[in-house]
Amino acid sequence: MGRKNWARENELRSxxxxxxxxxxxxxxxxxxxxxSNAIKTTKYSLLFFIPMNLYEQFHRLANLYFVGLVxxxxxxxxxxxxxxxALIPICVILSLTAMKDAWExxxxxxxxxxxxxxxxxxxxxxxxxxxxxxxxxxRVGDFVKVVCNEIIPxxxxxxxxxxxxxVCHIETANLDGETNLKQRxxxxxxxxxxxxxxxxxxxxxxxxxxxxxxxxxxxxxxxxKVGAGIESLLLRGCTVRNTDHAVGFVVYAGRETKxxxxxxxxxxxxxxxxxxxxxxxxxxxxxxxxxCLIGALGHYLWLNAMPVVxxxxxxxxxxxxxxxxxxxxYMFFTxxxxxxxxxxxxxxxxxxxxxxxxxxxxxxxxDLYDEExxxxxxxxxxxxxxxLGQIEYIFSDKTGTLTENKMVFRRCSIMxxxxxxxxNAIRLAVLDEPEAEEEVIFNQHxxxxxxxWSLDSEEANVEDTHGHGSRRRSxxxxxxxxxxxxxxxxxxxxxxxxxxxxxxSRTSSGSLSHSQKTDAYLDFFLALAIxxxxxxxxxxxxxxxxxxxxxxxxxxxxxETLSKDSEENFQPSGQTEGVDTTGLQPCSPHPPSxxxxxxxxxxxxxxxxxxxxxAALVYAAKAYGFTLLSRTPDSVSVRLPSxxxxxxxxxxTLTFDSNRKRMSVLVRHPITKEYVLxxxxxxxxxxxxxxxxxxxxxxxxxxDCYAKEGLRTLCIAKKVxxxxxxxxxxxxxxxxxxxxxxxxxxxxxxxxxxxxxxTLLGATGIEDRLQENVPDTIQALREAxxxxxxxxxxxxxxxxxxxxxxxxxxxxxxxxxxxxxxxxTCTNILDCTLEEVRRYNADPRNVDTxxxxxxxxxxLTLDKALSPDLLDRFVALVKHCRAVLCCRVTPLQKSRVVKxxxxxxxxxxxxxxxxxxxVNMIQAADIGIGISGQEGMQAVMASDFAIxxxxxxxxxxxxxxxxxxxxxxxxxxxxxxxxxxxxxxxFWYQFFCGFSATAMIDYWLMIFFNLFFTSVPPIMFGLxxxxxxxxxxxxxxxxxxxxxxxxxxxxxxxxxSILDAFYQSLVCFFVPYFVYxxxxxxxxxxxxxMNTSALFIILMHLSIEIKSWTVVHWIIMLGSVALYFIxxxxxxxxxxxxxxxxxxxxxxxxQMEDPMFYLICILSTVVALLPRYRVCHSLSSVGLKIFNCxxxxxxxxxxxxxxxxxxAMQL
Length: 1211
Fold this sequence. Notes:
By secondary structure, this protein is α+β, with helices and mostly antiparallel strands. It is about 45% helix and about 15% strand. It has 42 helices and 33 strands. It has a nine-stranded mixed sheet, with helices on both faces. Helix 22 (about 695-710) runs parallel beside helix 26 and helix 33 runs parallel beside helix 37 (about 1050-1075). It is elongated. Mean pLDDT is about 80; it is low at about 1-10, about 435-480, about 510-515, about 545-585, about 590-600 and about 1185-1210. One of its GO terms (biological process) is phospholipid translocation. Its EC number is 7.6.2.1. It is a multi-pass membrane protein. One of its GO terms (cellular component) is endoplasmic reticulum membrane.
């Protein structure tokens, strides 16, 4: 037990105030063991940059391999040529990489310096006030003051705010991308706070990267513990809004803050192509060793075949020649040095350059730009672009991914009576047009609505016209720079149901009696207005936001963004708090209060909701006159249809969690003084014992109807709690909130304890509309051979309806609904279904056909299907399903499904989602794509790519994915071919020089050949080649299948290219050999036409592979040839004794005067490339036959015309 207690205590930390120890040496400071607030994200220092960078680069085995060869070449017994020459290639590669790393590290240093020197206010006991310091001066235990529009420098426990209710509003956009305001509450017990009076000890958990979780408590001198959670923590990087100032106690600083722990930098994944590349590099190593072994063995045989020692074999200083066996052993290593370029040293650098270029083309594609949000696609994983062309399974979230996540209030049921809101449905039907027209419709038709439906005559005035007119702005302005999330007219405008409106009007007319105050209808709408976490602010109070261009979003690091934001927003100490000297509106320290009531109208209230569901319900309540006026941690004010304002005392808020699947607010009714619990949640509320059976039954029927229409459903309930029960429960709740160990379970238990025996009030149906072109995108992905799964937390009925609407499920599909409570039931369903599949496949009539089968499974059944006993059967079943719909699944289930399919079926997977609940799934897939939607940016921050709409997947995969994969695969194969073809020239020559590792080409020209003459064309090939046009790829999605499975880069493709390289090298070597046979030409005269022919063959080989020629192609290809002749002619003219004892002087000049030189070049090129040209020509003929097929063009033209028509309609 002692060890356990020690371990538990070791997981916590105790923090004291630094003020009593101010001025003392560091050794006497109580918080000296914790890091300072200064951050350092750089990897290198100026003094140790070179050794540290080399150490980093030598983690690559390829660099170690080439450095080892360089060292080997310095050994006299095995060197193949001048050691200095061998240094050039690896030094160039290492230097370029070091320059890139140095530039990136210098940018990190500049960013760190900006952040560390940003100003802030720290309390000084000596000066008895807050003094201006820098962020780097902040330490754990300090008291820091933050003012409006200022970025928080460290993780602070909020102790005091200028708001009388102890509330501080913050914006977390720099952390999670969420633009809605969030409330933070000061720790209770400090109404009038002075830093020097703080004498408690803060006990909290050790630093972690969970942005939504914090456990701690403040222990006062009397041993009383006051709990503190995430609701009292101000995170570094957040911005204070609508609050004049706040004071906090530094809990975590510097690298221990939650924002820094989440700043993991860009993700580096290994693509499937890269894994295949490593295998082929290993094959090349084996091939190299085989060739060197042949050379060593040949040299041994050649030496033994000599009757006497030839005079040109000069003995070493000892005067004795080494034995043939030892000489052959040395020759093995010499041959490795000579043939080292068989392993392409520049391949890895070329791949990085090509991928950077591919990312540039993807991010600058105008079709992937979203005008509404003024955003473009973001590529965060720099080295898996080619995987986009090999996807076989897509796992998608539903809400916010397939749908817009713009929640529209559609229907409701109150006490068993259903209200369909037909008028609102008509309005929404009119709005099913391009969004550019949406605001015009609202400006024309929304204005008269208050006259007809107004519950408050004072609202139907000129201000309403102004309010709607203010919405007339461009799409970019109205959305990208909107101050409030979930506030489009589509979401905020609700036309009340006539019948329900009349009932509410009759109930609320006149002075309300006690019985009317407890009317179920009034309780229903009070629950909609109260049971949420919506923050209320004034529409006239503008928040200062950081406006970041799309380019900055893509290139700037989070630290750089924080730096810019803070520099712009920081107010000097001499500036009056709450007053903005830059022309902005001053910060409002308080939400609207009752004293402001004469100025309050429905139009100048601004609702900041954390989810679109909450916003939709609050706006629905507002449409019926139940207007949420203000909210503080201790109270909430609602104006009734009669104009009377009710101020509810908020006793506690039971937040939503995935286990309870509900949230509740406990209030004291201002008239009845009763303790009332308002709850909203899933259908499990219907099981409460306080419900009347007939109402529960009818409401369940309404819920089923809503779900079949694809609506999101919520139940609304209430409970009156006695004072005695509340007091007992309150004690348990406080103890749970102050607990450190098992705090989450204890807090949930107290919530479950109170949320029993609820009385059902009604239910709501909210529509989440499909995004644009979702059915077309899913259809195209299916035709491309990609299976689409949808993993959602919605009810099966809702999910199935959306599945049919988006084309995931079709009418002719055989839909299998798996819903099993017991394991044996799940086993039987799997066995029976698999037997049916086997029978179908065994039937001779079903040859070459596939059964259109889809699966719908809920989370409970999925848990059983993924158990070890049933996992293989489940995977066998889903292999035959063309669509799978998983409902009521948790985030962990989502990630597990992705992992199971990826590992069991060995397929390439892609996961796409928009919310925090999709992060696990996104990170589990080979490629994770985040959608920057309505629920913040958690998914985007965890993803490899970020898009604005689901429809962008179509072009991203079918066009860019195909191009990236085919370009890179063909470039890699070409690199291997090029190096093998060139190095084989040296290998064939060994058969005629006694395997002595002699080269007939000058060493400098050999190095220039790979570094300069033939390096740029393959990079250009990997960047710009288009084997198929974008229109063809979009029109015929089936073409995407060429990249799936093994794709273009197959085992056979690699070895065919290697064999072709062997053939071409044989031609390139033996054509000049037979031409110059029995002549007395020197070695370099023999090698120069061979080197020139190799250049033409290798470049012409690439010309055959290029499918689309542009001006850039011609310039680079002709430029490479011109560069070869210019450099070689200059080198031959000036280099007399550059490489003794050989002499390349004036070799090429002499050769170019000989007609035989041109004959060799032409004949070698034609004979070497003839087989490849014939094969490529035959394949092109087959392709032309397919393209000339009437059926093919019928399908393509039909689809192309349809796409053109849709585009024209949109324009």
